[in-house]
Description:
- By secondary structure, the chain is of the alpha/beta class.
- Helices cover 29% and strands 26% of the residues.
- The chain contains nine helices and twelve strands.
- The strands form three sheets. It has a six-stranded mixed sheet, sandwiched between helices. Strands 2-1-4-5 form a four-stranded antiparallel sheet.
- Strand 7, helix 6 and strand 8 form a beta-alpha-beta unit.
- The N and C termini lie far apart (52 Å).
- The mean pLDDT is 88.
Amino acid sequence: MEGFGVFHRDVVLQARDLCYRPEAGVTLVEHVDLDVRAGERLAIIGPNGAGKTTLMRMLCGMLKPGNGLVHLDGESLDRLPMAERARRIAVVGQSDQPDAQLAVRDYVGLGRIPHAGLRRRSDDRDVVLDALERTGLLALRERRMGSLSGGERQRAQLARAIAQQPHLLFLDEPTNHLDPRARGELLEFVARLDIAVVTVLHDLPLVAPFATHVAVMSKARLVALGTPRETLTAALVREVFGIDVLRLPHPDEHDRELTVFDVPIRLSR
């Protein structure tokens, strides 16, 4: 890994020697180095308790590392003013609880708060309408957030993040509580945004179709970093997750493979 002394313009995010251990607790993240470049989609995967969410929270500035540094666009993340950080980074978390009475249009408009005073209000309205249109929510803009389905609410959260016009988007397990088709549609939409994305994913079959790069966490350490083909090997998946992975020819697309994760379920007869 290159140090902070060498910075490439297409590198959006750099992390070096990230560690986190709460007081009187076990180490949650230990000595993680990684880079995220413009347009890349990095999926952070690993079993429960591996340190995935803790790592993501340090990368986006929600949690101060116990050791190590994070640079955003070549600048130290912890030295950026909060407003400037919010203009560059958007976060969609698991615990987001929008006001149920808020109109979808007004909720998405919250993404413009970091830009207050920097643009005309008419420009902000155009950005919000564009975010609603891109997420397929334009017809629902007057609906209350509490009336939306789980998938619609997820898209509203994405629309709010898009309205921030960030350089980098963080998603913490964005496919939770969605049915299989909605999961695929959500990640397909995110992939079309053409910005750098860092996401924690639990659903392994979705990783290879979505991610350009994968960070595999195990026991607080980064044990693999690379493309899906480089990281989702049979040996590594078996070692980290305790399951087998099979690669099969795609029945319709000859230049693609199907990745099948074989989860052992043994029932007594």
